[in-house]
Design goal:
Length: 192
């Protein structure tokens, strides 16, 4: 989990809570920009590592933005929810009709293959990679890869560094914006 919050001396946090509305608004907007930038870099790197589309990873990341009531922006990924194998560039015969060569997929830079798996579309329209639980006519179980939470931990320092970098530059800009010193799309320094 990546958190961006006002921490440190309790007086600093109290001063921030009692700060004028414009300062709080600038801080919250900067936090939200920073956590959004962290999500972007994390999604890109995690998708590269898992060989997934960036959109799949981005949707799986949970982001909570900062508000006046909760002055903390949070980015996290579930360790319990695993990635469906079909999203990992799964290939195989469809429909296999029981005579397939199995399914192969990419996982963390390697190509993996399971000769007993098959690709199917359920009555609900859900498409996935499945495997029978035992012999014929037993129920089928969808196949999953690693959890995003494990991969999230691997790239957490990169996301936190990007969040700090963006917050440092965004706070100054947002403070000028809420005070009317910066117009829409222009910077007061650029005008001089």
């Amino acid at each position: 989990m990546i958190n961006i919050s006002i921490e440190g001396d309790t007086r600093i946090a109290a001063d921030f809570a009692e700060a004028p509305n414009k300062v709080q608004r600038a801080g919250l907007r900067a936090m939200n920009r920073a956590i959004s930038a962290a999500r972007t870099v994390m999604a890109r790197e995690m998708s590269r590592d898992l060989n997934l589309r960036v959109g799949v990873v981005r949707e799986a990341l949970r982001m909570r933005t900062a508000t006046f009531g909760a002055t903390e922006a949070v980015l996290s990924a579930s360790k319990a929810k695993r990635i469906p194998v079909i999203d990992m560039s799964a290939t195989g015969p469809y429909p296999s009709r029981g005579r397939g060569r199995g399914v192969s997929w990419r996982n963390e830079g390697q190509r993996k293959r399971d000769p007993k798996s098959f690709i199917a579309v359920m009555r609900t329209g859900h498409r996935g990679v499945f495997k029978r639980a035992g012999t014929r006519r037993l129920k089928i179980i969808e196949q999953f890869g690693p959890s995003l939470g494990r991969v999230f931990e691997k790239f957490k320092p990169l996301g936190a560094a990007r969040a700090r970098e963006v917050f440092a530059s965004a706070f100054d800009h947002e403070f000028k914006f809420v005070n009317g010193q910066v117009g829409a799309g222009t910077d007061s320094d650029a005008a001089e």
